[in-house]
Protein 1
Amino acid sequence: MRWWQFRKRNADLERELRADLDLEEEEQRESGRSPEEARYAARRAFGNEALLKDQTHDVWAWGQIESVVRDLRYGLRTLGRTPGFTWIAIVVMALGIGANVALFTVFRSVLLKPLPYSDPDRLALLYEADHDHPHPHPWLPVDAGSFWEWQHSTQSMAQMALVSPFQGYNVSAEGGKLPEVVDAAWCTDNFFSLLGVQPMLGRDFTADDDRPGAPSTAIITAGFWKRRYASDPAIVGKRIWLDAKTYTIIGVLPSTFVYSGAFGGAADQIWTPVRHEAPASLLKTYGDHEFLVIARLSPGVSLATLAARVNALQKQIKAAHPEPAVHPGAIGRTMLDDAVHNYKTPLFALLGATGCVLLIACMNVAGLLVARGASRSREFAIRAALGGGRMRLIRERLIESLLLSVAGGALGLLLAAGALQWLIHARHDMNRVEAIRFDGVATVFTLAIIVLCALFSGGISALSSGPANVLAGLQEGSRSHSGGTSRALLRRFLLAIEVGLTVVLLVGAGLLLKSFDRLRSSDLGVPVDNVLTLRLGLPNARYKQPEQRIAFFERLIARVRTLPGVSAAGLVSAAPGEGWNGDDLMSIVEHPPLPKGQGLDFMLRGADPGYFSAIGLPILRGRAFNDDERGKRANVVLISRGAAQQYFPGEDPIGKHLKTIDEGGVWQVIGVVGDVRWNIAQPPQPTLYWPIYGNGYSFATIVVRAPHDVESLAAPVQKVVAQLDSDLPVSGVMTLREAIGKSTIDSEFDSILVLAFAVIALVLAAAGLYGVLAYLVAQRRIEFGIRLALGAQRKALLSLLLLDGLKPALLGLLFGLPMSAAVVRLIRSMLYETPPLDPLVFSAVAGLLLLVAVAACLAPAWCASRLDPMQALRSE
């Protein structure tokens, strides 16, 4: 017999038992009994028919499975009789399970999955470091001069490749396609082979490609090939015009290839050889930090050993080149850690938040099951008195919980799938977002979390029911009893923990929201409303001479200023909030010489005379540039207020002269302007502004100010650019406020997610408070009727019930606030100008929780205080 033949076997057993009973009855009649007496005598002799069936089932090979199947059917019928309770429990479980499955998938995909390269565990990134002068960001890009020495001296320890993922190209219009700006990267010819990546079409770079004067070649990504060339299979060998120069496409990278790092690179669509592209001076310098170094460790060599060797080499390089811009040390980290370093703390925080939500959901469902079990206590006691085994009753409760968890898990998977799609769409700029997908490990995690939820919530409910003393159980279910005190205490205990976890989530969300608000409201240094920025770069192939670039920029900005609606316009090498964009070390001619190897660090900006009024940057002292201070006469500068205070303390900087440490050029300070932030989350840095028309700039950001509706000027400005050069694309078209929003997207995203989890937890806690008090009111309805009949004041009864309902909330608050103080220190790095123990946030959370608790408890307490004593007593 097979296990699926239960029905046939049960029918056979039924016929066999009936035949035996008939035979026994016939024997009784033959002994002289009447038919009715024979029938009763046969049943007495035969015994309990149902018990015989159960005993027979127990000896069958698949009897236990049949028993479980019966329990499943019974559980489904039981849950079906209370659809309201069932759907509430399923939705609560779905929220907890769905959030955890989604975050676990993201966490594992981003932080734990191996990179899509050959032997990714042996890949590392090497950086320079300044141990003598610690930086806020210690991972400093590398200069090419140091790289060549590292590569030569560590050949037995590792292979090394040089890459600069900070580049960009103007792709010319051709074949009916519009010009565009694409992110690009330079790399040495061994870059892709070091990673173990081979183009899916064409070939890799060779040493002959990676040299000055070689034919111009490029490798493109699969995404760029599909978007720009419609997946043309004959793309290899075709020409592409980059910065007005002709390149031959020699390969297309596989669709799985994405280079992601702490310094970006995920958006790079075109790759070109570094020795062919970079200026010869940049490839020899020891002070211009434009590159990253990727190393593949040789077998048996650890990253710590390689980093120590490179650090020693860098010290020797510093001794041989004592210039201030040369760093004295080097550090390294794995390539995976480099790619996900900025996401570790936020993802850990979000995973912890979803874990709290799941625990709260399980406690909520456990509380519901305990309450439901209390209403069935008389049923369980009667079943126990009639011989029902305790383990059988516990198993039934666990199966009910499992059914709820499975249904919640199925719904949660749908929620998780939707959440993952939303995340991939909303954070397509996140490193390793392409690796996020639901796989076998996530499936196992989902099944495990469903089982754990069932055991947790069902186990608590099962152990709280089925009293050891059957009489006590019958008494607890009688009309004269007010309800299960032990169960009420258990629900209150679960609710107190639930409230405590909610407090932790609310405090974390409050701190992140306050941090985000401070970040968004930080003073950029200039008015951010009604300002439009557009970025462009002039290709050197068409604008070789400085005079050509100056003439183009002057014609461009003159036409932009005449556009209807434009109140001011200017040019700058990088607008506020657009990033660092270069610095230089200088000395003050009128001051004593600085010690060898030291200099005053200025962030550099090129600007035209109209930039300061266009951006709203006040000139505090002196004057701005004149129109004739251009070209060879561009030897004047303005400095920021911070630079004046830091480098010219107690003196007037106007008329002083600055001299570059490396090149020896001299500039006269003619004005002092306000401070601006290069990054909204970073403090202003000492900044130097010099004429953009005389310092070799081939790129610029157009800054346009209008009294209102500045977005409508984007198309007219781009039309002016096209009139001057139809093959020149414009990028970065956004308002200054949009640029700030783009730079704060990480903080905003983390705040919104944690807030969403906190709100879910708060709703569940409020529902739990309401449910506990409503259950107590229902159980003590007769008691309250007697109290009112004996003269109790309704107001006093209302106060009593409110206090009774608020006890779990107060206990949870006392438990949650200290736990929050310990936990929030872990997210200190995510907070901007917000202390982890912010008293305002903690006070607001306590007040909000108490307010919600009062609101949740008020309804059942009010209903109890409005009871009609006669109606309550009649129900007895």
Note: The CA atoms of residues 96 and 358 lie 4 Å apart.
Protein 2
Amino acid sequence: MKMIRLLLVVICALPVLVHAQTKPLKLHYSLPARMWEETLPLGNGRLGMTPDGGTHKEKIVLNDITLWSGSPQDANNYEAYKSLPEIRKLIMEGRNEEAQDLVNKNFVCLGPGSGGARWGKYQTLGALEIEYTHKLIPGSPGEELYNYNRQLSLNEAIAKTNYTVNGTDFKREYFSSFDDDVNVIRLTASKAGAINCKIKLSRPERFAVKTEGGELQMYGQLDNGIDGKGMQYLTRVRTKLTGGKLTTEDGALKIEGATEVLIYVSAATDFRGVAFREKSKSLLDAAMRKPYSLQKANHIAKYGRFFNRVKINLGEGASSGLPTDTRLEKFYGSSADDPAMAALFFQFGRYLTISSTRVGLLPPNLQGLWAKEINTPWNGDYHLDVNVQMNHWPVEVANLSELNLPLADLVKGLVKPGEKTAKAYYNAEGWIAHVITNIWGFTEPGESASWGVANAGSGWLCDNLWQHYAFTNDLAYLKSIYPVLKGSALFYKSALVKDTRTGWLVTSPSVSPENSFFLPNGKTANVSMGPTIDNQIVRELFTNVIAASKLLNTDLALRKELEEKLKLVPPPGIISKSGRIQEWLEDYKETDPQHRHISHLWGLYPASLITPSRTPELAEAARKTLEVRGDDGPSWTIAYKLLFWARLKDGDRAFKLLKEILKPTSRTDINYGAGGGVYPNMLSAGPPFQIDGNFGATAGIAEMILQSHDGFIDLLPALPLAWKANGNVTGLKARGNYTVDMSWKNGKITVFKIKSPVSKKVKVKVNGKMMLVQSVK
């Protein structure tokens, strides 16, 4: 490809572009939430809350990212490896259904697995309930409500509820403080003494409420699956009044005749041995010593250090000022008058990331931080066959790199238990995690062969860890994760077996996540050897470990061994007779051509094994694969397809998928097929609520604007017609620790700037031409 040399691209108009993107970003509504999926999510990475904005009774669901039932367990079957030779023999002979029966008998976890109390669940902390009494004006016919509005400011991470009753303006502000690590709610009234309310705490189970002095407390202990004495938690509520009187009654705080009320909610659990009683008290004491104005300003500033790194402008339209629920309906019907919706959804995804995790704690789970229930869908845990990985796909490109570190910590915690599992089931070196895990370090196969023996989980997690290095070039970080990557590579190196038909080295047994196929005898099975996703992950993992060993100047012998093994790993994709990427080593007919998982395109995204420029035949086969799979599915599936189409440089098809994920829905049933979308509060619907759809779509929008996986920075690689008129973005990240700003008009870049800590040359594709650009510090 011809390359145009360009030493520096710095345009003085860029500061104007930044100024043009400072319009406030918000979700807003003209009615209180009628269901939890209409509430507004707030969080500071540990604590969260979702107020419904009710005028008479308000329910604010509370969360703590560390609150889990269950406990550590060893569910390994230490005799499983004895069945491995027979299982592999049956698969090699094409007797997959018999192999699957043997897997179910001898090669799954002991006990009920994820269906048992020992496994545990991410659970709601409970709810803060506020009952409001509005005094009537003498002689009036009854209560009259006007000017209702509630909103969530993405720029400030503050929610508000405002309304007028009988001539009095009532205002509320809510935030999960990034400063004091407590939830804060401020109630004000335009007339002195107009606030009258009662404050309660509750939970569906395992709680006790009491008042102590002027403090409301809720304590409980969750089920650990052994003796009922699991994780403990404590929630404390205190208030500050301007005017009025505070009394306590029947486990509640009662406030009469106040003009302003500040409500502070502190909570803690004994996760990792934290002194939760002392912590919840000290946080509350510190927060109450600060003036509200300082507390709010500090919160906005500390949150803004993350959020303000990226600004995006895709244009404005006629619908931009409408209430968000109405706006969503109109966008799905006709997106032409609302180009700003995609920018709002992108920034909402960044907001959710910032709000649902923090360095030193846990990564966002299936629900991020926000769970309304005890029995959270799919346990609110960590699924390793796409979901937790998708949660982290936007983190690097969206300039929130350090928020990848909690996932790295979680994965490091899987190594030791994963070594036991590798020995127990495969008599192999290294470590493995299969398809599901929790905060207790579960690495065993799941309880059913149909999905539970997926081999890809640990290798896939290692790709997420590698991406943090690829974006940051942080050698100290690479050194810290190298043992994790190496341990995973050691597992696959020692567990791969030779396919006698092709000579390739493949995993066995394994599954292509949750999918099944027809055998020649008409029967169906899930279990096979060498599903395509495994081959792609092993190829990428070995390549990354080889690169890391060179960068760190270590493990020369292992490096050479992996280089030799890599020659025998199947290619990134095999094209079937139908012209599609095969999902399995054999060209099986899938039982569900529109299956929600598209695991065999892992090499297209998140990996870079398949690209239109380097592997055009495989890229075309991937395109045909997606055509057959269709555009519908649960929200996370739609988001994944959006990413695939962006990688194939088809911006309009990617935008079609973006519209599909923004399809309004109120369904909350458990769904495995078509029907994904978003709820009125823009949280993604599987249904039910799963946050991975939000994060996948956020990554997808970024991928349409900027790509950096193919050896160069590609500006506007998949820009749809809907965004071509004009737009600008600042602060996106590219691999190699580059920060990218750009502006475009009529689909063509007019201004761009590449920044890096050290000025260096980098290849950039601009308006179809490759340039060698000198980055600036």
Note: Confidence is low (pLDDT under 50) at residues 1-21.
Protein 3
Amino acid sequence: MLIMLLASFFYDAGAQYTAKEGSVWAFGFHVGIDFSSGRPEAIYTASHAREGGASVADWQGNLLFYTDGARLWDSTHNLMGNLSLYIPGPAPYVTGLSMTTITTFQAATIVPDPADFNKYYVFSLEATSRDGTMLEAPWLFGVGNPQRPPYLYYSVVDMRLNGGLGGIVPGYNSIPLDSFLTEKMTVVPGDDCNAWLLVRGQNTNEYRAYEITGGGIRPPVISAVGLFAGQSVYGKGALKTSPDRRRVAAVCTYVDGLELYDFDPATGILSNPVIINDTNNNEGLDYRSVSFSPNSSKIYLAGTSKFGKPEDGLYQFDLSLSGASAIRASKTRVWKTTHNWTSTSNTHSDTDLKIGPDGKIYYVGEGPYHISFRLFMHVINQPDQPGTACDVINNGVALYPYPESGKWKGLPNEIAMPVPDTFYARRDVVICFRDSAYIEADTGGRQFIWDDGSMQANRMVHEDGRYTVGYFHGITRCVYHVDTFVVSFSKRIPQVLTNGYSCPGAGQGIARVRTQRYDTVTYTYTWTDSAGNILHTYTGNGEDTVRGLNPGTYGIRITTPKGCDTVLYTTIESLPVPQAGFTSDTLMCPGDTVFFENTSGEYPIWQWHFGDGATASGWHAAHVYPDEGLYPAQLTVENIERCKDTFTRLIEVRGLKLELTAVREIVDRGTSVTLYTNAGEAYSVLAWLPEVRFPDPSSVSQVVYADSTDTYFAVAISDHGCIDTAAVTIAVHPELFFPTAFTPNGDGKNDFFRPAKWGGNIRVRSLVVFDRWGKSVWTANGNHAITGWDGNQNGMPAQAGVYFYIAETETDTGKVIFSKGEVTLLR
């Protein structure tokens, strides 16, 4: 079956990839929350975070590692390594435990390396004393004070180390990056598959944005913003970014302040500071944390009680309003809780807010840490709704009941997943003549997530519909694909029927194809033979029949308007075929009789064709071929199924073609001449004629002496018995004789001197007679020369004596002869 994929592609570089890297929170003392199932579930962790920390999961929601800023733990809750340059010392408020006293509110954060799926940057914001004891006010660094301000370090974790549990890359542990900072640190994805790490300077009115790219960490972008007087007010409290990445909020604890900035994720610049809460509100709360709502339209400010007021508070501001005054005026208290303690001392507890993977905001902040364990978290169910419609649930989530669980202040910091360029593709898939099929994304991808939650590269589908899969392409986190398969099934397939049999070459086979019941699809049937030749084409919904088929396999290509394209096959079987055959001589002489002996089986019909137009019927046959030639003698037999078979044998009728040649056929009298026979095939000589001239009658060559023109004959027989006779004539050149004396006395005897010829035709061209002194006395040409010299010279009788002559003659074979001699004239 053929599945056709027709794809058109659409691109949107602003699309974001969403997975489950932030679905497991490890925080506080041995507690955590796992959201990977879709709802928060309490888990045990090895965390020792008194304030901030960070944790990260893989794309499927499986915990990878977590940190309190000083230590790293792997997914089995075993220590991966230390991130502090200070030796961990005893912490008096954690009985029986030992930890580095990281007390910054946002002590750590994690950024995946955009260029490598296996690596993560871990940033630590550390504030400890030089002797390792806890500091409550590290931002008050001064001369003579044993404390130091927060320092910023980074380490690199590679999950390929330690058998897949991860480890710190050698040489990349606790690398100093910045110093003299406040407790504020957060991260936000950039626009170019990067991330921005935001920190606040301690002694300068500036935010520093470090860009994390596939090539490493770049020097910070400086934004000199902040409207509160004095930089110490920025020392404590959270720094948070909006989910749409366009705003940043900073809590300034010591002025009960909340400052809002615009943020550009393309450049890392903060701008347009606006104060939307300050000491003038004087609710008697100590503000530490803030959170935007999931759609970035609301912001929540959380505070814990101070100055002896036994209550906590949670406020909402509406950021969709225009102008700072309108936003400040929208402040609504959406939740509060009353404690059972009445101390008037300035005792307070920290609080924190964080958006969960389920779109709810989770909130901690009940009671001073030395009075009440924090075994529950509060929940804002509808944080995008205005006012109390946001639905705050007190103690909505129970935590792991570890004895020290209440001694913590913060939730895990944000992690920043790089925003990849996202490419959308639509693939129209027609699944033909099947009830199910696999659809498959790019096998070179990774981290496949289908819309049904499955995570393989392929997926089995059974029905029409739209199926979507997302996956990263390549080795970085910067290219993400979202493929939508629009699947259309065509489940029925036409049936092919056939009568199944035919004699070879008889065209008796019939085949047909028809649609199944209730099938209304229009099909195109293209019939082909085994060589691919198209026999017939039909388009419609009815039955299509093809007749006249010989034995063999035939293909029926079936196509539909949707693009289904498949080939079915049917076979026409051969009926029993008779076996024709006969024997005969295959080389004969003209006029000989050829006898044909039938070797076929007992079939009812025999038909002979001798190849020269003559036919016969019957079991055996005989035939005479009078002329030479190559004749295809043929026997056709037919059985009771009307199947025929033909056997053909070539009969060659060939006589002997004897040749007789001589080395020379015109010779002088008495010349020895050799005669040769030849036939171009094997033969034997039977006789030479005339017999008296040839002593060896069987020799293939002979020698004769030519004394006269004569014709000679040779008789031979071929190996297949054909006799032939050949002849050759040897011509003897004629000769011309001259007398040696003549008597011109008129007695009628020898009165003239002239030539006398012998054998054959001869022509005298000229005859010249000279006296003894070489003087010509008589000359004649042609017939006059044949008449001869009468012995006169200039009309007077020449003197008796010896004369000389020269004669030019030509034989009937074209030979020219010059004769000379002397003749005596007698009187």
Note: The two ends are 128 Å apart (CA to CA).
